[in-house]
Amino acid sequence: MKKVLSALLLLCTLSISAQDTVDKYFKKYVPKGYVLQEIIRGDLNKDGVEDCVLIIKGTDKHMLLPNQWETEIVDKNRRGIRVLFKKGNEYEVASKNYSCLSSENEDGGVYYAPELDLFIQDNKLYISYTHGRYGSWKYTFRYQRGDMELIGYDSYSSRGSTSLSIVSINFSTKKRLDSVNINAELEDEVEEKFVDTWSNINMPKLLRLSEIKDFDGLYF
Predict the structure, then answer these.
(1) What is the pLDDT of residue 16?
(2) Distance CA 59, CA 139 (A)
């Protein structure tokens, strides 16, 4: 038993040590007044090399505020993103936005606040939010023309176990699909039935990650 505990302790120590090394390495890519909160890895510029997306967070002490119930002080500093492309042994900044993401301690009213998740898949960056029984939405970014550009938006709206609507937008083709469950107001036992409506969108140019002020208000 002692050997098992010793082995587990050693693994934990090595894991913490490795994380400390990673954090120290990327510290030079974190701007002054911010701390590194998370690292997302994956190839974003199709060169077969693993790039990084850093989630950074402000450190303004004036943003340490009471929560909505005033039971404790929470950190409401906003968060930002730095997209780093691997170049040899170093990284270069491909895009940056220091305050587009709200804190992880926002008020949720009678429900909890939406949960944020970032991931890289198929050379694209996805910024996703889930809001439990109310649904989810995500933004799809691709590197082109010197920045991460918004090329897609998808949302799913629900009321508990009942699906209400689905929205899917392709900003590259300027096409939007709205799918509405016309049986949403009927009894739960009724099978869902979606009616699709296609439309064109009017967007002269694609939104850039570096230009987005606040994802909380970015709906379509």
Answers:
(1) 37
(2) 26
